Amino acid sequence: MATTELPAKYDYRQLDRTINQYIAFRPVQLEADLRLIHRWMNQEHVIPFWNLALDLDKMRLHLEKALADQHQTLYIGYLDDVPMSYWESYWAKDDILGTKYPVHPEDQGIHLLIGEPDFLGKGYALPLLRAMTAFQFQSASTTKIVTEPDSRNQKMIHVFERCGFEVQGEIELPDKRGTLMFCDRLRFMAMWREVLP
């Protein structure tokens, strides 16, 4: 990846040479993104794993609460400046996940979905996940990224594994049975040293 000058709206933007496209993330803005996220959460491929197929008013309330939660930051993910994915980057110690393993105060976690059906099945999940993981590792004190995809979502678990995450086991969460996975900074950087900026 080659670093370019960061446009003002993005917190992170890189050219991924493996797909020859720019990947970028910017924070969610309630009014600007409500209808987009609402549409994504009501997509057939998203509903089984997010359980947020809400009407617009309930989605507004959900996003208001999520945006007020200081332990996480919500992002819209872009490919070549086209919004196509939704991300939650969070501090594991303040999340329910932090009660499921010996959490370190600087561990960060990831939730994600590709919302636009036109971007499914085209090999974008790995570059996108790699970019978000690299973005989170910009926090110098973070040495581990964690995640807990739905254990039924074998495609996403496989993508996490290809990115450098390792399965720790299954855990019970209030809304699902999840697969706990860790990504170690040194392992990740060694895997992707020729790709990362």
What labels would you give this structure?
single chain; 197 residues; alpha+beta; Aminopeptidase; 9 strands; globular
Count the DSSP helices.
Answer: 6
Strand content: 25-35%
The CATH topology annotation reads as Aminopeptidase
Question: What order do the SSEs take from the amino end to the carboxyl end, as H and E?
Answer: EEEHHHEEEHEHEEH
CATH level 4 superfamily: Gcn5-related N-acetyltransferase (GNAT)
Question: Would you report the number of β strands?
Answer: 9
Radius of gyration: 16 Å
pLDDT under 50 segments (min length 5)?
A: none
Indicate the percent of residues in helices: 25-40%
Q: How many domain modules?
A: 1
C-alpha geometry: globular
Determine the structural class based on helices, strands and strand pairing: alpha+beta
Main sheet properties: 9 strands, mixed
Q: Please write the CATH class name.
A: Alpha Beta
Strand order of the largest sheet: 1-2-3-4-5-6-7-9-8
Which CATH-level-2 architecture?
Answer: 3-Layer(aba) Sandwich
Cα separation of the termini: 5 Å
- The chain-level mean pLDDT equals 94
